[in-house]
């Protein structure tokens, strides 16, 4: 399973770091991504560390503000979010895709339960 943590309320311009810890399996054979679903919108992929290259890609909406990283020793990935804006308000999910070059929603094998991020003054 995947368990996210680190969400909360933050003012515009602030920062948060989300964590996604895997248990019961190791992430090294999976592409791992962060997704988010804003109120009234479909879930979108915002970052992905692919397999096997382990290169990281970002959606245009977060590129330059968000940074995804992984700690293999902890079987955990992180999403460091800077310069948050109200449009970043959403439930954030991590998802793991078996041996994939991309993090595509229908292909996700494991989902976390989600963590809520609210950007508001």
**Derived structural class:** mainly beta
Tell me the number of strands: 11
Strand portion, in percent? over 45%
Distance between the termini: 34 Å
Query: Which spans of ≥5 residues are poorly predicted at pLDDT below 50?
Result: none
Helix content: under 10%
Main beta-sheet strand count, sense and barrel state: 7 strands, mixed
Report the average pLDDT across residues.
95
Q: How does the overall form come out from the CA principal axes?
A: globular
Radius of gyration using CA atoms only: 13 Å
Total helical elements: 0
Write down the secondary-structure element order.
EEEEEEEEEEE
Protein described:
It is built from no helices and 11 strands. The chain is globular, with a radius of gyration of 13 Å. With 121 residues, it is an all-beta fold.
Question: How is this fold's topology laid out?
Answer:
Layout: E1 2-5, E2 8-10, E3 16-22, E4 30-37, E5 44-49, E6 56-58, E7 66-71, E8 76-81, E9 90-98, E10 110-111, E11 115-119
Parallel strand pairs: 2-11
Antiparallel strand pairs: 1-3, 3-8, 4-5, 4-9, 5-6, 7-8, 9-10, 9-11
Question: Briefly, what is this?
Answer:
This protein has 121 residues and is an all-beta fold.
Tags for this model:
4-stranded antiparallel β-sheet, 7-stranded mixed β-sheet, mainly beta, 11 strands, 121 residues
